[in-house]
């Protein structure tokens, strides 16, 4: 809880100071909210940034996605990916990993599949962790055929599957 309180205090000071257009303090607050499991505050701050004429970047969105992951808010994670696309902010492997993990918490394997498909279609960084997390999610949901297809995808991309991927 301390992390997001401290970050919010920093943001308040920055809004009044000479570095008002600097995105880093806002990103720090969103990260602090995520670490403090305050996903509502993280998303609220993301919305408020437009009022300060700040355009959220990939780091900002990844911090917000991490907050939704910690809060098990898969719908909001998926909505953030859509919002990133609309605002032409490039999602990276971390973006997709957080969204997939939010889906795992809620056993939303169909959404994991859609996120993976979008990641491949957009040519985003194919982080092994994304595939390992998805394999874990498919195993958790007992979707063995999806796990098998995912394993083949990993091998085709040159990604070395982990033990969870093989066991799924």
Characterization of this structure:
This protein has 168 residues and is mostly helical. The protein has a single domain (2-125), classed as Alpha Horseshoe (Serine Threonine Protein Phosphatase 5, Tetratricopeptide repeat), CATH 1.25.40. The protein is 72% helix and 0% strand. The chain contains ten helices and no strands. The radius of gyration is 17 Å and the shape is elongated.
Give the overall average pLDDT.
Answer: 82
Report the count of strand segments: 0
SSE order, as H and E?
HHHHHHHHHH
Q: What would CATH call the architecture?
A: Alpha Horseshoe
Which structural class should the secondary elements be placed in?
mainly alpha
General form: elongated
**What is the CATH topology descriptor?**
Serine Threonine Protein Phosphatase 5, Tetratricopeptide repeat
Poorly predicted runs: none
Total tally of structural domains: 1
Radius of gyration: 17 Å
In terms of DSSP E residues, the strand content is under 5%
Which CATH class applies here? Mainly Alpha
End-to-end gap: 36 Å
The helix count comes to: 10
Helical content (DSSP H or I, runs of 4+): over 70%
- Report on the biggest sheet: none
Q: What is the name of the CATH superfamily?
A: Tetratricopeptide repeat domain
